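HSPB1-associated protein 1 (Pongo abelii), 489 aa
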Amino acid sequence: MAAGSEATTPVIVAAGAGAEEGEHVKPFKPEKAKEIIMSLQQPAIFCNMVFDWPARHWNAKYLSQVLHGKQIRFRMGMRSMSTVPQFETTCNYVEATLEEFLTWNCDQYSISGPFRDYDHSKFWAYADYKYFVSLFEDKTDLFQDVKWSDFGFPGRNGQESTLWIGSLGAHTPCHLDSYGCNLVFQVQGRKRWHLFPPEDTPFLYPTRIPYEESSVFSKINVVNPDLKRFPQFQKAQRHTVTLSPGQVLFVPRHWWHYVESIDPVTVSINSWIELEEDHLARVEEAITRMLVCALKTAENPQNTRAWLNPTEVEETSHAVNCCYLNAAVSAFFDHCRTSEVVEIQALGRDGEHMKKEELNVCSHMEVGQTGSQNLTTGTGKPETASPFGPDLVPVAQRSKEPPSERGGIFGSDGKDFVDKDGEHFGKLHCAKRQQIMSNSENAIEEQIASNTTMAPSQTFISTDDLLDCLVNPQVTRIVAQLLIQGRSL
């Protein structure tokens, strides 16, 4: 079998049949678009939904005029076909304006400019994770040029969005986002997306190094995998989609994705949508952060750059992470009190399986599931007829392809994977996370000093409490099995 090439469940394309841009007719009303987003467990491309967005014309040249003279951080990577992923911790960075980027990208860069050390034929540049609130801090009126309200999220616009600008070959390593789902609007150029379903996680060899909150990376370069080192990757179900200007890609929760620019200049805008499941996920992420920071800092206190992703700018001290963990737990219990029914997950008797003891979602999620009994999901077979008629069309399953024909854009043939028929909560809400932490920090410190007994939602969690859970025999058994399995591969 070709590595990660066969998909048992197809990607879905939501296309507005007969709705040409000139007709100004959108195939889905906001309520229906949100119903699709909250129901589908498959990636989907929405077409003809953003033709009237002012941001539709935000190409790199226009943005260079809007952001005239503003310094932006670009990640510099090598144009290579190495089997090792180019994580952000291994890249160099350049501070430059968009004008300087466009000049360099046209092979007209100066020997004295910010890109002087980077041969355009050997390097790519990527201005990724650029938050609107920082990028356009003095031009907040531009937030209204992005209208996620058309997808059923009233009031959501550029304020909850990020901007991505890259050159040919710029890419994001394969990863999954622990929080939320993702809507990605392609503005200029095309991007190729390699997606893998959540059930393929064991075949993607997940790692938390480099550490970035809510990003679980894969050890594999999925466009040029080392199958001798990672043989299980051959079992992965690859879904490949080329996203073109004017299209919006929906990436469901926990879908792995590797994204690469396949045109000279690409511009994308995305927004991570919060989900009900995020409340528990934040607690899990807080535990992960606490463990990773404690162990890696003890290992090498002077070199956090080797394991901490550059996007993580917050302090990594044990005290701060304790506050973060307590804030996440407190928020989870607060949510439980305000929700009529909460999803509860319990560790299986053997510690080998997580089973859902009760699965009832809140009212806003129930709306999203209404009438979706025939939708394609990750657990059932796709129906031949779409419940949304001709505007929701399955993409044909790809044929098996040898690895040499599935390489990245710098592979031997250089061919594009254009489909003939047709990027996390923690990063996006950094300010909100800091506010939650600051609000809870004083209460935690007061409790430590008084050592008083408080309600469950206010109970202080000590390092010993966390360790009691982590070294529980059931947990250590799983960890031991994973360690042994990893060493034996």
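The chain has eleven helices and 18 strands. The mean pLDDT is 77. ok done for today
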